Amino acid sequence: MGAFVTGVTVVTTRDPAGKPHGVTANSFSSVSLDPPLVLWSQAVTSKSHPAFCGSDHFAVHILAEDQIAISNHFARSRDDKFDDVLHTDGIGDIPLLAGCVARLECAKVAAYPGGDHIVFLGRVERISCSDRRPLAFHGGKYARCPVLDDCTT
Length: 153
Description:
single chain; mainly beta; seven-stranded antiparallel sheet; three-stranded antiparallel sheet; 2 helices
């Protein structure tokens, strides 16, 4: 699957006790425009899996090309990933990161088993966007997305 170029996201939530959780994910996709739905998947073995299962909201942060450190930070397992990360609170008190290309605040509408993962489906309730360039991932490495001036050929 490394041959497929993906964007890089960090998905955040709060567990029922109020503790913030976040994880780096490239398993993100748009599903529907009307209503606005997105999906992402998480390994059932992830330490934050119970938090995402128990929460009604999550936020998807589409990372900018200069946010590799944020991606790496949330990709590593640790007890409190928000100890040294500035954030604000969004819908459902979900933690929101700054500086992203886009941020989608979602209400979880379903969770489906998918092998060793759970696929979360969310209805987008609020979007914030910037004109920053996205971070990409390909072949196990971070990549930049060049802008193509002429796509008519």
